[in-house]
Amino acid sequence: MKYEIVKDKKESGGKDGASSLMEIPQWTLGEIALSKSTLEQIEEMIAYVKHREKLLHEWEFNRFLKTGKGLSINFFGPPGTGKSITAEAIAKKLGTNIIKVNYGELESELVGGTSKNLSKVFQAAETNRSLLFFDEADAVLSKRISNLSQAADHGVNSAKSTLLTLMDKFNGVIIFATNLFENYDEAFLRRIIFNVEFPVPDKEMRTQLWAFHLSKNVPRNISNDRAAEISEGLCGGDIRNITIKLGLKLLAGKATLVDESLIADEINKYKTIKLRHKKIDTTEIVVEDAPSSDLQEK
To answer: What is the largest CA-CA distance in the chain?
Structure first.
């Protein structure tokens, strides 16, 4: 389904752009390395959707669920732990499409524009019975601004109030995902039934990840179990990137098979880059927060 997104004229050249965010989910739960706790909660989510009428009417939960009958879920954990692909897999299990939303794409400089965009996304999900997925949800579920100093602050709070109302009336499944769970406003937390943590994979999960990403057709003399042992601290997204590099080395003739030394070398390079990025990011924060000389003089 296509719907108009409200944009500032300066950004859109005076024309409203049409966006189609609905996708057919590609992932299945069997392809994702998940903890036992996460899988158990997913089973409960699916049971709610499939047997909602029994829960609401036969068991009379509708006595206190008088508005929206939807299900709000929150996935939190470090990047690369499988939050977004798990949302896709749940949509596939339920036999629905998925609408993926990044809040930044819905923000508008026009008064009330962001709220209108949120409403249209929820309407699209409701009309098409699609699972609604918000990535980097801390941008929209964060605490409301208490000290309003400019018009933009009022717009932010207005959009958050609109989202609260939409969540209350929504009859579908909505999943939020974040790396910054601690920033959530309590008003949103009260409306979320499942808060599911996606931790850094343990050895058993890493073994599953290596088995999935490095197929039996790839020339190698290292087991998935051993690869998991030497990749402690890596997430699924990390292992995916490393296996792609391993495949490219084979294709380029730089190696004839994947062995422990080749994997260890790629892991070390990958971790070095991540560490450098972390140092750069920390430096930028320190510089940004440092008081200027003018302020110090005053």
So the answer is: 71
Q: For 156-172, how does the pLDDT look when each residue is reduced to its tens digit (9 = 90+)?
A: 788 889 999 999 999 99
Residue 91 · residue 130 · CB < 8 Å: yes
d(CA 247, CA 244): 5
Main-chain dihedrals φ then ψ at residue 81, nearest 5 degrees: -95, 5
CA–CA gap between residue 28 and residue 106 (Å, rounded): 28
What is the distance between the terminal CA atoms of the chain, rounded to a whole angstrom?
Answer: 57
Q: Please classify residue 226 by burial: count the beta carbons closer than 10 Å to its beta carbon, then call 0-12 exposed, 13-18 middle and 19+ buried.
A: middle
Tell me which amino acid residue 165 is. T
- Is residue 126 within 8 A of residue 65, CB to CB? The reply is no
Q: What is the b/e burial string over 143-153, where b = at least 16 CB atoms within 10 angstroms of the residue's CB? A: ebeeeeeeeee
Q: Please name the residues in contact with 210: beta carbons below 8 A apart, sequence gap of 6 or more.
A: 224, 227, 228, 231, 239, 243
* Residue 289 pLDDT: 46
Q: Which residues contact 237 (CB under 8 A, 6 or more apart)?
A: 79, 80, 81, 82
Cβ partners under 8 Å of residue 63, min gap 6: none
Residue 152 pLDDT greater than 50, yes or no: yes
| Mean pLDDT of all residues in 268-294 | 63
Distances from the Cα of 109 to the Cα of 4, 14, 156, angstroms: 15, 13, 10
Q: Which residue has tokens 């070398």?
A: 265
CB atoms within 10 A of CB 203: 11
